[in-house]
């Protein structure tokens, strides 16, 4: 936390006229409160354990349309578990996830793309044998309607989808300034560019919600600044709601509209970057100060 004190905060983006996703009515997102924007994602009383280990305990918060929301916390706080709950990899023991106007006990991971959600991974999950364009094209695969046989035989619908996917992938390669390396096998690219390819692959699915798992991990300071600019640009261009786990607190404070802080699987703060970095419970969590009221978590 102490590294964040010099961070320059960006103003929250103004409300954009995006098609509304019907908010799931929860105590934390009352539809009657006019000052609140609509929720893109709600988590209600999420608990998850692995054997005897409580990874998440009664976590609730709402992410508003168009915001960049960071999830931070010390190692083992439950950040990845939470992202895996949101993306349907884990079914929580308790709680609900509100997404795309629907309420889930477990988000159907196989339908994530059609629910308007795309994600990147902490460790790169690229197809190392494919070139940049090929990897970006894979981001359209889950949205294709033509069946396997149609694709093999190159039938009408499959051909049209192919052409459409290629055009969209080319546009995304342009958008992320990857044109000079579009035919390079991804494995030959520097790490920062590979992370950019992963972002392009997520964005080409045209998500409304983008989940980023440590988008700056392993990057140099220059690469971090570059990717932060790319994230901002994508958020504005595509009216995205972004939920991001990131360890670089300076970058988090710079990029986020709001920040959720987890510690020992519990939500200990949810607020603006300024509020969160001044919160005593957050400072204590990062300094490893024990609290009696967390012992039961
Ligand atoms: N698949 C799993 N099996 C058993 N325990 C797990 C599993 N995944 C997470 N845990 C445990 O749940 C707790 C939360 O882990 P999680 O990875 O979600 O934390 P994190 O905040 O993402 O940590 P880090 O910052 O180190 O990535 C930890 O105690 C971890 O050991």
TrEMBL record:
<dbReference type="Pfam" id="PF00005">
    <property type="entry name" value="ABC_tran"/>
</dbReference>
<dbReference type="InterPro" id="IPR003439">
    <property type="entry name" value="ABC_transporter-like_ATP-bd"/>
</dbReference>
<dbReference type="InterPro" id="IPR032823">
    <property type="entry name" value="BCA_ABC_TP_C"/>
</dbReference>
<keyword id="KW-0067">ATP-binding</keyword>
<dbReference type="InterPro" id="IPR003593">
    <property type="entry name" value="AAA+_ATPase"/>
</dbReference>
<dbReference type="InterPro" id="IPR027417">
    <property type="entry name" value="P-loop_NTPase"/>
</dbReference>
<feature type="domain" description="ABC transporter">
    <location>
        <begin position="41"/>
        <end position="289"/>
    </location>
</feature>
<protein>
    <submittedName>
        <fullName>ABC transporter ATP-binding protein</fullName>
    </submittedName>
</protein>
<keyword id="KW-0547">Nucleotide-binding</keyword>
<dbReference type="GO" id="GO:0005524">
    <property type="term" value="F:ATP binding"/>
</dbReference>
<dbReference type="Pfam" id="PF12399">
    <property type="entry name" value="BCA_ABC_TP_C"/>
</dbReference>
<keyword id="KW-0813">Transport</keyword>
<dbReference type="InterPro" id="IPR051120">
    <property type="entry name" value="ABC_AA/LPS_Transport"/>
</dbReference>
């Amino acid at each position: 936390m102490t590294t964040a004190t010099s961070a320059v905060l960006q103003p929250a983006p103004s409300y954009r006229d995006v098609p509304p996703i019907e908010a799931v009515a929860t105590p934390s997102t009352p539809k009657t409160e006019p000052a609140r924007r609509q929720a893109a994602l709600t988590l209600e009383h999420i608990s998850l354990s692995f054997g005897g280990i409580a990874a998440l305990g009664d976590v609730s918060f709402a992410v508003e349309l168009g915001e960049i929301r960071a999830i931070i916390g010390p190692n083992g706080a439950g950040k990845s578990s939470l992202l895996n709950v949101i993306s349907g990899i884990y079914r929580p023991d308790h709680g609900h996830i509100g997404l795309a106007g629907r309420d889930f006990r477990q988000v159907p991971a196989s339908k994530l793309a059609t629910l308007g959600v795309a994600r990147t991974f902490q460790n790169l999950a690229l197809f190392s044998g494919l070139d940049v364009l090929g990897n970006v094209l894979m981001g359209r695969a889950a949205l294709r309607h033509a069946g396997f046989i149609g694709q093999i035989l190159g039938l009408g619908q499959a051909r049209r989808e192919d052409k459409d996917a290629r055009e969209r992938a080319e546009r995304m390669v342009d958008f992320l300034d990857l044109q000079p390396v579009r035919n390079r096998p991804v494995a030959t690219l520097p790490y920062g560019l590979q992370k950019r390819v992963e972002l392009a692959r997520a964005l080409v699915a045209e998500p409304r919600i983008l989940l980023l798992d440590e988008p700056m991990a392993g990057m140099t300071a220059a690469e971090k600044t570059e990717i932060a600019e790319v994230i901002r640009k994508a958020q504005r261009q595509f009216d995205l709601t972004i939920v991001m786990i990131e360890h670089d607190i300076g970058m988090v404070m710079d990029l986020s509209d709001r920040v959720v802080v987890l510690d020992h699987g519990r939500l200990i703060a949810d607020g603006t970057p300024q509020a969160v970095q001044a919160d005593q419970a957050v400072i204590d969590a990062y300094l490893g100060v024990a609290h009696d009221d967390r012992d039961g978590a």
